[in-house]
Amino acid sequence: MTTSRNTPDACAHAVMETVPMVMRFIRTEMRRHSAALLSVPQLRALAFLDRSPGACLFQVADHLGVTRPTASVIVDRLVRRGLLRRAEDPRERRRIVLTLIPKGSRLLKRARSSARSWMAGVLAPLSRETRRQIEEGVSLLGSAFKQTDGSHGRN
């Protein structure tokens, strides 16, 4: 996916074409590993709460891009399956804090490990130099987004 234009727009186009495809494969592999238990939105909710312990329902809804009632249904199912805990925030009674519990953490870890192994298999046939370039590019992409202040790259 080399572009000769090397413009911000061409780079954005390449990222927007590639990242969703890679994520689709990752989600499929994670879902395949935990197919009996979880939907993709449930997996995404677990992953979000793993990165953001103590988040509340509206934050899960925002992350998933769904309404609060839809997020509530997703969270309720995860709580019933013993993967999450719902608790009242001691500082703000109306706020519900969501926490990944050990069973949910183990399931998420197994699904991620399976996806990582699958991806290593996809990348294995590539040359060492190509894998180095991919690793460097992904690292640079991550750094670019970590530096943004949420203003969509416009400082």
Report on the architecture of this protein.
With 155 residues, the chain is mainly alpha-helical. It has one domain: Winged helix-like DNA-binding domain superfamily/Winged helix DNA-binding domain (Arc Repressor Mutant, subunit A), CATH 1.10.10. It is 65% helix and 10% strand. It is built from six helices and two strands; from the N terminus they run H-H-H-H-E-E-H-H. Strands 1-2 form a two-stranded antiparallel ribbon. It starts with 7 loop residues before the first helix and ends in a 9-residue tail after the last helix. The model has no long low-confidence stretch (mean pLDDT 87).
Annotation, overall tally of beta strands: 2
Strand content: 5-15%
- Give the CATH topology: Arc Repressor Mutant, subunit A
Morphology: globular
Summed up, the domain count is 1
- Given as residue ranges, the uncertain stretches (5+ residues, pLDDT < 50) are none
- Distinct helical segment count: 6
One letter per element, helices H and strands E, the order comes to HHHHEEHH
State the distance separating the first and last CA atoms: 28 Å
Give the CATH level 1 class: Mainly Alpha
Taking the sheet with the most strands, its summary is: 2 strands, antiparallel
Q: Give Rg in angstroms.
A: 18 Å
User: Could you estimate the helical fraction of the residues in percent?
Assistant: 55-70%
On the 0 to 100 scale, the average pLDDT is 87
SSE map:
Blueprint: H1 8-33, H2 40-51, H3 57-64, H4 68-80, E1 84-89, E2 92-100, H5 102-123, H6 128-146
Antiparallel strand pairs: 1-2
Helix pairs in contact: 1-5, 2-4, 3-4
